[in-house]
Amino acid sequence: MTDKLTGAAGRAYVANAIRQALRSGDLVPGQRLVELDLAESHGTTRGAVREALQDLAAEDIVEIVPRRGARIRAVSVEEAVQITECRSALEQLCARKAATRANEEQRAELLRIGAGMRQAVADGAWDTYSALNQRLHELVVEASGQEVARRQLERLNGPMVRFQFRLALRPGRPAQSLPQHLAIIDAVAGGDPDAAARAAAAHLDDVIEQLRSPATLTPVPGR
Known about the structure:
The chain is mostly helical.
């Protein structure tokens, strides 16, 4: 008998744990991923770890080097910019569609998210702001009903988790991005597709500007 997670459950658990560790800075680009160590630390079988690494390789988060094993894939600033340019096109599409397709419950949730983001900035609650930010983007995509765009955005976002983490830590970033997010919320909740697309474009243009900033290359203290 074993208490180790196996099969699909173990595979998903390890993959999610690695995504979270990369997002939090506990894993860094270029870091090796040892199957045995991961299996022991996460209470899964090596088979589950191996399958999880294959899944993450398909998402461009991990690279598997023949005879050398797996490691976190390094993403250059230029690649991150190109990924964000692709995200922008898809998120504009989703914002435009969400403005006309969102139901009343979704519009109400968007407004609650906006209020929560304002309060999080006022309180300096950056973890809360980050979680609301993620939910906002997810909800706009959900409300759009654009399933193909959702799948493509999930794939594009995978390699970006480290950059998103670094941008979130930048002093003053939540206060800077708050008006951009509120503009998306107001346009989608108000049913204005053109304004929603413009707001999404403006937000992603600013993300690209931040990625190109020299601060993006500065190491995060303690990481």
